[in-house]
Amino acid sequence: MTDGATGAGRLPVEPPVAPMLAKLVRRLPEEDGLRYEPKWDGFRSIVFRNGGRIELGSRNERPLTRYFPELLDALGAELPRRCVLDGEIVIAGPRGLDFEALLLRIHPAASRVRMLAESTPASFVAFDLLALGDDDLRQRPFANRRALLVDALAGAGERVHLTPQSDDPAVASEWFSRFEGAGLDGVMAKRPGLPYAEGERVMWKVKHERTADCVVGGYRRHKQGGVGSMLLGLFDGDQLRRVGVCSSFSAARRRELVVELAAHQLDDPSGHPWHGLEGTGLAASPEAAHSRWNAGKDLSWVALDPVLVCEVAFDHLQGSRFRHATSFRRWRPDRVAASCTFAQFDEVPPVELAEIFGR
């Protein structure tokens, strides 16, 4: 990467970079010196700025640059001229972080991306600094990189933010419960002496987890056979809404589920409440179909009589959808499908993101 405007040389850290990762734990770690930060719910991104050139890397090391044109101007105005930052691309909506709005950005049409950039502009939240000027900072302690990051973002504006940080576990516990309404999905914990270890799980993350009873309306086949994921629904009045999937079954469990679900498979799916409805990762009918985002992704599904109820564990419900895939806990033969409604969820009051950013 070179800067055509200034003739600057290559950055000390060049793309692609595999982001440093975290291990999932169920309780907030507590040890002397730990640094805590909110866990943002967006697109993880490594930002490379070399003068007039900016590239947005992603967790899978594919560039996100073309999908967030409004960030390029902001990053160019608010970052040091030569730097590499780790952070999260987020979109703040009326009720907090809006991940669905982020997903809409991954669109092949540049005109669509530009329209969304104007109507729902994204922000970048920085939480680590990998390079500054000609210095590669990855082997320096995290506490030192954080101090340099604070200075580097001293002049940041409305689209580039420094993530909050605390060494007090009581503050982290408060963030965990109070910021959930803003769409943040947990808390991170990092040791101050931690170097930047690409692709390694050397941090900790504590995420929200609850359970819900859902109707199983169908399933997708796994490419190696058996049930790949079960399609979940909840009743909103008399309408069965699609809310997400339950996945991550072992090979043996995938085969067992085919047998367990066989008695409920519909020979004629035309009467299924989801037949003919497109969107949210479901084909309009159970026949083979493919994703418009990924031509190789099969969205075909097997329709089931929507009478089975299962209990699943989830971390966050955003609007009327589970933010991530859920985990199967158990069948609930004692529950009637019609009793599985949105009323089982507590409403978490939204917190203004301005409070989180300190603005």
- Global structural class: alpha+beta
| Largest pleated sheet | 6 strands, mixed
Q: Give the end-to-end Cα distance, rounded to a whole number of Å.
A: 34 Å
Task: Give the helices and strands as they follow along the chain.
Answer: EEEEHEEEHHEEHEHEEEEEHEEEEEH
- CATH level-4 homologous superfamily of the largest domain: DNA ligase/mRNA capping enzyme
CATH architecture of the largest domain: 2-Layer Sandwich
In angstroms, what is the radius of gyration? Answer: 22 Å
> Beta fraction of the residues?
25-35%
Average pLDDT? 87
State the low-pLDDT regions, or none.
1-7, 283-296
- The CATH class designation of the largest domain is Alpha Beta
Q: Could you please say which CATH topology of the largest domain applies here? A: D-amino Acid Aminotransferase, Chain A, domain 1
Helix content: 10-25%
Q: Count every beta strand, where a strand is a DSSP E run of 2 or more residues.
A: 20
Question: Overview of this structure, please?
Answer:
The structure is a single chain. The protein is an alpha+beta fold and 359 residues long. It has two domains: 21-207, DNA ligase/mRNA capping enzyme (D-amino Acid Aminotransferase, Chain A, domain 1), CATH 3.30.470; 210-344, OB fold (Dihydrolipoamide Acetyltransferase, E2P) (Beta Barrel). Helices cover 18% and strands 30% of the residues. The chain has seven helices and 20 strands. It has helices at 69-78, 99-105, 110-119, 142-152, 169-178, 251-262, 353-357; strands at 21-25, 35-38, 43-50, 53-56, 82-90, 92-93, 96-97, 123-132, 135-136, 160-162, 186-190, 201-207, 210-221, 227-236, 239-246, 302-303, 309-314, 317-318, 321-322, 327-331. Strands 3, 4, 5, 8, 9 and 10 form a six-stranded mixed sheet that branches. Strands 13, 14, 15, 16, 17 and 20 form a six-stranded antiparallel sheet that branches. A hairpin with a 2-residue loop joins strand 6 and strand 7. The longest helix is centred in the last third of the chain and has 12 residues, at 251-262.
